[in-house]
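Archive maintenance. Older records in this collection stored only the sequence; we are now back-filling the structure field for every entry so that each record is complete. The fields below show one back-filled record exactly as it appears after the update. Entries are processed alphabetically, and Class I SAM-dependent methyltransferase is next in the queue.

ARCHIVE ENTRY
Title: Class I SAM-dependent methyltransferase
Organism field: Merismopedia glauca CCAP 1448/3
Length field: 249
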Amino acid sequence: MPEWYKKDLAYIHDVGHSDYALKSAPGILNVLAENNIREGLIVDFGCGSGLSALEFTKAGYRVLGIDISESMIAIARKRVPQAEFRVESLFKNQIPLCNAVTSIGECLNYLFDSDSDRQMLFQLFHRIYKALAPGGIFIFDIAEPGQIIDSNATKGFTKGDNWVVLVEKQENQQQQTLTRRITTFRQVGEYYRRDEEVHHLRLYQSTDLAEELDRIGFQVQIVHSYGQYHLPKAHAALIARKKSRSDFT
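Back-filled structure field:
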C-alpha cells in the first residue's frame, strides 16, 4: 500500500507550510464561539502534524485528529500529547459523538483511498451529520476547478534551511482532477536525501457540495476566508451547521 506524506515530506510540510493551519485557526475558533460551541470534542480530519489541534486544545477543546500519514501523526503526538490521534483513512473510520468536525487544507479533495469518489464523500457527510450534536458545526475547505490558469501544468519550488521541495502541478479540466508530482530533498548529515510522491486530487465545486449538505439537513454557508485569513485562489470553505433543538420549536 502506498505511503503518503512520508517522513521527509511530512517534516517539510510541518516546518515550511504551517501558515494555512495557523492562520485559519482564529477564524475557525470564532465560528465555533459564534455558534455557542466553547468546549467539547472537535474531530479534525486530515489533522496533519497537529498544528490546528494545538490551537484547539489551547482554546479549551478536546481533539481527536485523524490522518492517513503515520509520519504526520508521529509529529502531532509529540506536539499535542493531550490530544488523541489515529492513523486512518478520512473516509473509513468511526466518528465519535462530537460538537464540531474540521478539515483544513483541502484534505477531502485527496484521492488517497483507491476507491475514493464523490459518493464516498457524500457518505462521509451523512456520517458527520449523525455524529454531530444538535447545533454542531462542520467546517472544511476544498480546492475547486481552476487551480491552474492559462495552461494545464505549472512547476515551482520552495526551499528552507535544510530542504528543497519541487512541485509540478497538472489539472485535467474534463475530469476535474489535479495531479501534484512532488520531489523533496532534505539534508541528512552532509548529504541531501531525495524522495518523490504523486498526489491526486478531485476538484469540487463548492456550490455542488453545499447542495448535498443542504439535502442532508445542514444549514450551509460558503466563504472564501477564515476570519482575516483569505484562502488561496480557487478554494472555498463551507460552514455547515446541524440544526439545534431550538430550531425545531
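Update note: The chain is about 30% helix and 35% strand. The first strand starts at residue 41 and ends at 45.
Entry marked complete.
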